[in-house]
Write a structure and sequence with these properties.
The chain contains 9 helices and no strands.
Length: 213
């Protein structure tokens, strides 16, 4: 008799009902698709239409002594944990910073080599009294064209990777802010490379076109 009463009490315990319903929903729907409202509906928690989520949370917490969180709450808790309790953000930031510096150096050197290979042509244009503004525009167009073509290729590869990952259990999220920051960073790298090349072109003496070799 005592064991039956204990089982009845456990069956009617709202905490056990919530945990059982949550486990079932997590397995059936996935964690990201389950909310406080869905769990409350599953356990037939008494609430009126239009009741705020905060009221539902307060009711669940007062009757179960557990903390009730919405999907947004879980996201914020996870975000705070990653930022404050792990080194992921710092390590990721260091990797991005190093990649940016390496990109600056490689892009600058690449465009400088391109400029050096074509110095005689730039010298010829200067000997023909081509305005410096025209030479600047030529270099900028070359640099920006290569920059945006590279950005487009990179975004295309990332998009194809995301399409491939969509068929697996791995998560993939590419927000527009990431694309904007990446495009801005590549633009800065391209302009830095253009400055290096322009410094060489604008100091070029037209007489070099008459030299042999």
């Amino acid at each position: 008799m005592l064991s039956e009463q204990r089982r009845d009490r456990q069956r009617n315990d709202p905490r056990d009902k919530i945990l059982a319903a949550a486990r079932k929903l997590f397995l059936a729907e996935g964690f990201e698709l389950v909310s406080i409202r869905i769990i409350a509906t599953a356990i037939e928690y008494p609430r009126q239409p239009g009741v705020e989520v905060t009221a539902v949370k307060a009711g669940i917490e007062s009757s179960t002594q557990y903390i009730a969180r919405t999907s947004a709450d879980f996201e914020q808790v996870t975000r705070n944990y990653i930022l404050k309790s792990t080194g992921i953000l710092i390590n990721f930031g260091i990797a991005i910073g190093l990649g940016f510096v390496v990109g600056l150096l490689i892009a600058g050197q690449t465009f400088l080599n391109f400029t050096l290979d074509n110095l005689r042509y730039y010298a010829t244009l200067k000997a023909l009294a081509t305005p410096a503004s025209t030479l600047v525009k030529m270099v900028l167009v070359q640099v920006l064209s290569v920059t945006w073509i590279s950005f487009g290729l990179g975004v295309g590869i990332v998009a194809l990777t995301g399409m491939a990952l969509a068929k697996s259990d791995l998560a993939f999220l590419m927000r527009w802010e990431i694309l904007a920051m990446t495009g801005g960073a590549m633009l800065v790298v391209g302009l830095f490379a253009a400055l290096i090349s322009l410094a060489k072109v604008l100091r070029l003496e037209p007489a070099v076109v008459f030299r042999g070799g």
